[in-house]
Amino acid sequence: MRGLRNARAAILDSRAARPHIGAMDALTQIERSYAVAEQVGPLVRRVLARNPSPFTYTGTQTYIVGAGRDVAVIDPGPNEAEHLDALVEAIGDATLAAILCTHTHRDHSPAAGPLAARTDAPVIGCAPLTLEDDGPRADAAFDPDYRPHRVLEDGEIVSGDGWTLAAVATPGHTSNHLCFALPETGALFTGDHVMGWSTSVVSPPDGDMTAYMASLAKLYAREQDTVYFPAHGPAVEKPRQLVRGMIGHRRSREKQILRQIEAGRHGIADMVPHMYKGVDQRLWPAAGRSVLAHLIDLEKRGVVAHSEDRWLLSA
């Protein structure tokens, strides 16, 4: 258990900065409670999917909300038989009132259709979105089969026996990203927008740093949220403190990028090795996507300009 605590501590120390591959490897070597419903808070159970990776941490966490005659499932995860069977078993005799998806990356929404077929539950939540992403994350490709019965707008609610889930639009990681608030307990299900172990990859063309920063500011203003349940990593028990740190981290990244340009490094491939020295090189392509997102945001604000693959400070 000491190894587990130390590994988790290492990740939490770096969570506002970057993924920590060494610590992740240490955790995934320890037996995890896959395909088991675990109580993680009032009205909330978690089922962990067996899809660990450098981008999903120990796997996708599917949440079951409710303790009465009906329940909701948030982020049903990958279409894997073991995971689907575990969700159906955890739902038990309750009615599945809604299957909600925060966004349509393949580690979040593919099980929505199969779970709906087995339970007759409606798929509700984010809008469908499919596009060719030229980023490096094979596990973050969009789910082309996602077909919601109802798309939630910001502030719309889904309710059941003793629970209410309200959509909180948080574009940035993807343009269709939603969080879901559970006002009965002060919980917010944050998908990939805010995670307990690392910052989110923001990968253009759909990932948008301007929108991501605005969504972080939106969550920081929500004083009613007392705990975050992300799709990957541990619960966040001091959410506004973490969000404040994430905003500061992104501003620091901006300054790093400007210093790189001042030092004569005008291409993203030249910047990344200097900016991410402590990050496993397997993550450098993804880091480059976030650098690109920052540069696009800086260009919108008139701070930088680019010509072909060269980024320059604006005159």
Automatic annotation (TrEMBL):
This is MBL fold metallo-hydrolase. CDD domains: metallo-hydrolase-like_MBL-fold. SUPFAM superfamilies: Metallo-hydrolase/oxidoreductase. It comes from Novosphingobium endophyticum. Residues 59-232 form the Metallo-beta-lactamase domain.
